Amino acid sequence: MKLLDKILHRKDISSSAEKSTDGIIETPPEKSIAFVDYEYWFYSYKTQFGMVPEPKKWRDSIEPYNVQDVLIFGEFSRNNAIKQELSRLRDITNTIIETFQPTGRTTKKDVTDFVMLDYLYQTAFSQPDITTFLIFTGDGHFCSVVKYLSQTLRKKVIVYGVTGTISNRLREVATQTIELPDDHTTYEQYKKMIVNNMSYVSDHPQIVPTFNGTVNAIAKTNPGVSEELLRRSLDQMLSDGLLKKEQERIAFNQRVFTIRPDWQKLHEAGLWEYK
């Protein structure tokens, strides 16, 4: 019998069930394993927000779940953009699974999904003491395994996904769904983009940095950036006093409002270093 058949036909061996010893009810300590579709995370961040993932920050956030291992999946060998992420990924785990298949008709993304699904089922079968599965994906292909883990084995299944990309069916069967990036992370990343733009403008005095012009310039040089979130970030930086709006004359009878940095406040906020 194949491994998948064994898993689907075995009895519920949920490790989250309570145990009784001499009349005393005991609950086993939480133990978790994380499974990360890094292609999904990397490219969704890039296309949706113009950002790159922060795997170390995420790894630190899941520490309370008593993580036994973090398994990261992706086709790293042939894609230079994602291959450059390997050094940062090795800072959080040694378990990086290359999913590239040199032959066959299956699409690259499907291969990553299939490999990750296989590891999920194998783990459910071979490590029944795992109480929590942390799965980073938004793909509806994972609905069946998440439903099996949460409803049949009664495991806690927390799905992490990129805002705006998570399958509704996946949300329905997961114990909990957490969307990334959160507002604070997005704001911090966009602040850096804005400061970089201000630095560039300061070296090119012919540029008149209006509010809309700044948004357009950053969006042009950072594909995937949300202009709506960028506008909100600019507004917030103005409110925080990191930027200031000034009225400037650009012609004899024409004035415009420009956006200028307060370099001292940006320095104090850790966003700028004097050269």
- Count of all domains: 2
First-last Cα distance: 67 Å
Uncertain runs: 10-21
| Order of SSEs | HEEEHHEHHEHEHEHEHHHEEH
The CATH architecture classification of the largest domain is 3-Layer(aba) Sandwich
What's the CATH topology name of the largest domain? Rossmann fold
Number of strands: 10
- Helix content, binned percent: 40-55%
Number of helices: 12
What is the average per-residue confidence, as pLDDT, rounded to a whole number? Answer: 88
What is the CATH class designation of the largest domain?
Alpha Beta
Structural class estimated from helices and strands: alpha/beta
Percent of residues in beta strands?
15-25%
Fourth CATH level, the homologous superfamily of the largest domain: 5'-nuclease
Q: What is the CA-atom radius of gyration, in angstroms?
A: 24 Å
Largest sheet: 6 strands, parallel
- Choose one word for the global shape: elongated
The side-by-side strand order for the widest beta sheet comes to 5-4-3-6-7-8
